[in-house]
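Internal ticket #5521
Category: modeling
Description: The requester needs a full-assembly model to guide mutagenesis choices. All entity lines are attached below as received. Residue total reported by intake: 596.
Assigned to: D.W.
Attached entities:
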Amino acid sequence: MRKLLSIAALLAVWETAARLSPVPRQLFPPFTNVLVALWSLLLSGQLLENYLITLARTVSGFILGAGLGVLIGLALVYRKLAYETLYPVVTLLYAIPAVAWIPLFMIWVGLNEALPISVVFMCSFAPMVYITLTGARKVEDDVIKVARTLGANDLKIVTTILFPQALPSILSGLKVEAGMAWRSCFVAEMVAMSSGLGFIAMEAESILRVDIILAVILVLAISNYLFQELFEKIEVSILRRWGISK
Amino acid sequence: MPSIEFRHVSNYALRNVDFKVEDGEFMVVLGPSGAGKTTLLNVAAGLVGYEGSVLFDGEPVDMLPAHRRNVGYVPQNIALFTHLTVKENISYGLKLRRLPAGEIESRVEEAMKLLNIKHLENRYPKTLSGGEQQRVALARALVIQPKVLLLDEPLNNLDLNLRGSLRLELKHLQRKLGITTIFVTHDPVEAEELGERVAVLVKGRIVQVGDFTTLFFQPASSEVAEVLGFQNLLLCEGFKVLSRGLAEARCGGMKIVVPYGGKGVIERVAITPDKVLIEEKSPVKVNCFRGTVEEVACVQSKVKVKLKVHGHSITATLPREAFEALNLTIGKEVNVRFPIKHVKVKLREG
């Protein structure tokens, strides 16, 4: 309820400020104008079509990047040699902002579907390696030792101990990185694609339709929020089940 | 159940460890922090590298990795799998052995009944008390029917009362199952109450092995004496038999009633510091002496009090709450009591 109230308050301030402001409504439209633009985009089918394109790019890049990131993270925590060899590389990749890859990928993969997917992949991969590694390294040595004495080999330790025990950290990471994935895809579409939410925003900019830009940003924000809520709910339910309050 | 033997075992923490735990025996390894106690258990379990040899029932197991040695291991911090329920924790090892579902079910049920934790089967470890977690860890270690049971100070994180009762229960359980057990601890009281034999480990070496009374009165070195933590050793000039099972020993002006088996001359009398009682008013007069507080020092959750009693220096360790209740200050006169059952005697043939 409080969440809804704070959002309603923000929208009310926006609406009032835009209506009272001397700035032309074309440049600073009230919230209701943005809703109208959103409605017309919906009716034309343009929003849904481009939204689904962005969703597909974001989800596929995110699943590939985060999935591989989790696997590599688990391998790194378990194998000392792999950790010592690959951890510096991961740390270097982690420091590079995802959008910095866009110009490089424009040359390497070209202006096609692989571009935003690659950007989202890079955006999710290194952080998820890092987060998984951090989560799995929190598992106490004694827990692994006990599992070993009970008969667990290397693979069983990874699948039955390290992964489930690192899961709360992984879900926290996914929650943050899902937002990053949406943003990176949006930027890639703005810069280099001719479809998707980012593309609509750039098109609207060229005809000075701030209401459309804001409508697209609104859709992006809601999608991001829903993704985060999903991971939050999974995380909380797991932690509650295990008797760890959050 | 097989015996377990360490033959010239050395590694980063152990130096030429050489001793044997007999079939079905409860062996306590006693040593201070950093002595290598945990490493010794890890060697037995195959969790760390070492030179030398470990034998189960005379067969070397050095080439077997930890997951093939079939040992039950309970570490100091219990290490339950927080993402699994009690029942899932206990069945973990059995599932890895790919036993039929029916057999897993019946063995888990049996283990839960044995440890009295059937009512907790669907709970997660974080929702259990320390004592309950302890039982689950034991059930998980025992259910795989291990060749040996390795216990690494498992009662350490429990409060004193619970520790005492679980200690008894553990001993009873071990006798019932007849499982060869190594229990490591830094606490001489635990060693005395649990161990049929005690091995003293100091700086990675086993310096003495024997029953507790032998170690207590005949420590092989000052290191052993220090580990056993005894300070209250009194020389006796004479004694008289009071009744069957009791005698009165004269030790430098003190007349101390002691347990007496009826054979030999009482040479020395001793009592461990944690068994010495300090009281404002004593409910019984036997073995009760006036003493003066000379020194007070805090040691973790306990308080060490040095007293002068009839010219003897006597040390007592008290729980902090008991110390605060007594309001002890240096120079204060108090009653010092040695409960008969806790007084140890060293006899000489004669």
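Resolution: model delivered.
Comment from assignee: Chain B has two domains: 4-228, 234-348.
Ticket closed.
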